[in-house]
Amino acid sequence: MPAFRRFILAAACLLAFIFVIRSRRSPDIPGAPGYKPVQEIFEEEQEALARSQRRKTSSRQQTPIGPLSAPLRDRLRYQFPYRLDDRFPAYIWQTWKYTPASMYFDVDLRDAEASWTTLNPLFVHEVIPDNTQRHLIEYLYGSVPDVFEAYDSLPLPVMKADFFRYLVLLARGGVYSDIDTQALKPAGYWLPDELDRSTVGFIVGIEADSDRPDWHDWYSRRVQFCQWTLAAKPGHPILRDMVAYITEETLRMKKAGILKVGKMDKTIMEFTGPGAWTDAVYRYFNNPDYFHIQPGDKNITWEDFTHQTTHQKVGDVVVLPITSFSPGIYQMDAGDFDDPMAFVRHSFSGAFLNVREIQGFFTDTHTQDHGRQIHPFKPMHAFAVVVCPLLPAIAFLGS
Question: pTM score, two decimals?
Answer without folding.
Answer: 0.75
